[in-house]
Amino acid sequence: MKSFATYKVMKEHEGLTLEEYLKTILQYSGRKIQKLTRQKGILLNGKKVFLQRKVKSNDVLRVLMAQDMAYGVEPEEGSVEILYEDDYMLVLNKPAYQLVHPTGQTTKGTLANYLAYHLQQQGIITTIRPVHRLDRETSGCVIFAKDDRSQFILEQQLKDRTLKRVYWALVKGIVHPPSATIDVPIGFHPTMANRRAVKEKGDPAITHYHTLHTFSETSLIELRLDTGRTHQIRVHLAHIGYPLLGDGMYGIRTSWLTRQALHASSVSFHHVKDQNEITVQAPLPPDLTRAVDFCRSENS
User: Fold this and answer.
1) What's the rounded Cα separation, in Å, for the pair 181 and 199?
2) How far apart are CA 232 and CA 138, in angstroms?
3) Spatial distance between the Cα atoms of 133 and 142, rounded to a whole number of angstroms
4) Which residues lie closer than 8 Å to 39 by C-beta, 6 or more apart?
5) Nearest CA to 27 among 272, 279, 300?
6) Rounded distance between C-alpha atoms, residue 36 and residue 30, angstroms
7) Same domain, 292 and 170
8) Residue 261: other Cβ atoms inside 10 A
9) Would residue 59 show up in a list of annotated catalytic residues for this protein?
10) In the UniProt entry, which residues are flagged as the active site (predicted)?
């Protein structure tokens, strides 16, 4: 049986074309609208309608809801820590050393596999849709959408910089200035395909940071991203001379930390349905808490 979402047109939206209403008010993508049109999945007051028809106050719009038939990954039993969940999305706390989703030769053991199993146990079938990524060694907040429309809305917020991501990092050195913006482009490394580098003709990359604590030879800093280039934080920190501790690719390995000292501490976004701003936080994991304590002890 087909399932429809129902919307009533408000007076302030009267005069918009149906296509404008779908795109700007309900935030359906152009591709999704085309697909719904082919499926005869858009009804206005119970009837099929042209997209250029202007809507009126109190019109009732019904839009076909897609029914996912598979998860897109193989469900696998494993632990997931849910920081936030509603009908449209989840925020999970990713542990270090775990991939967000299958890639290359790795098809199991990812956060996506474990989430698929978690939803399967609840009788929920939905494609696993990560809205953004974290490196394997980075811990913290990852957002997953439960349907394609929610994914589109959240990805638009990411593009428009209204979805905000905050990170904590331990770096080598006393950062100066203590707060600043790093605005240098990033592109592929000229000789190593799996690395990125600062390049004059690379993609724009903007990272804001400020210092939370300084120790004898290290600093704990908070970073906010305007862009999401691969390895952005790690490349930018190395570029300004304060490499990430524990990072064997761009930073400095240490005997007392077995992975890069980077944690996605929070995400902020506007709720898919009511646009209320929500902030979700992930506590600093035990290994990074110990690393901070170690830096503090060297300070005393």
Assistant:
1) 17
2) 13
3) 7
4) 64
5) 272
6) 10
7) yes
8) 28
9) no
10) 135
Cis peptide before 102 (omega within 30 of 0): no
How far apart CA 42 and CA 200 sit, in angstroms, is: 47
Q: What is the pLDDT of residues 63-81, one digit of tens each?
A: 887 766 688 899 999 999 9
The catalytically annotated residue of 59, 68, 87, 135 is 135
For residue range 101-135, list pLDDT tens digits in order. Answer: 998 788 899 999 999 999 999 988 888 999 999 99
Which domain, by its residues, includes 24?
4-64
Its sign, for the CA torsion 9, 10, 11, 16, is negative
Q: Residue 67 has what pLDDT? A: 66
CA distance 187 to 165: 21
**What does the pLDDT read at residue 168?**
98
**What one-character-per-residue DSSP string does 242-298 give?**
-PBBT-TTTSB-BTTBSS--EEEEEEEEE-TTT--EEEEE-PPPHHHHHHHHHHHHH
146 plus 236 within the same structural domain: no
CA distances from 230 to 122, 134, 188, 206, 234 (A): 34, 9, 9, 12, 9
Helix (H) or strand (E) holding 223: strand 218-225
> Which residues of the chain are modeled with pLDDT < 70?
1-2, 67-69, 299-300
Domain end point (choices 158, 173, 191):
158
The amino acid present at 66, given as its one-letter code, is A
CATH code, domain carrying 146? 3.30.2350.10
